[in-house]
Specification:
The complex is a heterodimer of chains A (113) and B (111). Chain A is an all-beta fold. Chain A has strands at residues 4-7, 10-13, 19-25, 31-38, 42-49, 56-57, 64-67, 73-78, 87-94, 103-104, 108-112. Chain B has 111 residues and is mostly beta strands. In chain B, 0% of the residues lie in helices and 53% in strands. Chain B has no helices and 11 strands. The chains are: A mainly beta (113), B mainly beta (111).
């Protein structure tokens, strides 16, 4: 019973490089989310998806793209990494409504130098 | 802009003491949730409150939702070192697909 799995757990990028973060959930949840967490700023929503094939922008979407080609996977892409994107990234999923709570992954710590 | 304000930002207490963490907003929420996050891990859901004035108890933790559904508190009785962590509140709006999170309260319980 894995829940939400994020890969990789750690990554160091050089400015301008690209990468994709993978989130996989095995709970058949409809909704999936990508957040970033920075000290003193809490969790800020980057993008989210309310179902397979759909995506929407959150609070801080600039510099990121996402795709939800399969219901169980939600990918977060950085096309040209910047030092401001150094953060811890969390993926989360929920069943038919966020009102009943999210299940979070264990996070990806990304450093852009 | 944080829609949910948590206070205090940091709290350090001795084992056995009580503590209260607050979560306030000017917005009305359909439900409010509390999560606990340990270092290197993702947040874990503790409780969801949905009715104004609702009180829920989870062992030594007591959660309360304000009558006006704009605020909440988390009270821990006889805190233990295992209660150490970052406590986050999150609010859901009616007909919305996502949660808004507060910045969190870092709680340290010293043995």
């Amino acid at each position: 019973n894995a829940g939400v799995t994020q890969t990789p757990k750690f990554r160091v990028l050089k400015t301008g490089q690209s990468m994709t973060l993978l989130c996989a959930q095995d709970m058949n949840h409809e909704y999936m989310y990508w957040y970033r967490q920075d000290p003193g700023m809490g969790l800020r929503l980057i993008h989210y998806s309310v179902g397979e094939g759909t995506t929407a922008k959150g609070e801080v979407p600039d510099g990121y793209n996402v795709s939800r080609l399969k219901k169980q996977n939600f990918l977060l892409g950085l096309e040209s990494a910047a030092p401001s994107q150094t953060s811890v990234y969390f993926c989360a999923s929920s069943d038919d409504s966020p009102h009943y709570g999210y299940t979070f992954g264990s996070g990806t710590r990304l450093t852009v130098v | 802009t944080q829609l949910l304000e948590q206070s205090p930002q940091f709290l350090s207490i001795q084992e056995g003491e009580n503590l209260t963490v607050y979560c306030n907003s000017s917005s009305v929420f359909s439900s409010l949730q509390w999560y606990r996050q340990e270092p290197g891990e993702g947040p874990v859901l503790l409780v969801t409150v949905v009715t104004g004035g609702e009180v829920k108890k989870l062992k030594r933790l007591t959660f309360q939702f304000g009558d006006a559904r704009k605020d909440s508190s988390l009270h821990i009785t006889a805190a233990q070192p295992g209660d150490t962590g970052l406590y986050l509140c999150a609010g859901a709006y009616y007909s919305d697909y996502k949660l808004s999170f507060g910045a969190g309260t870092t709680v340290t319980v010293r043995a």
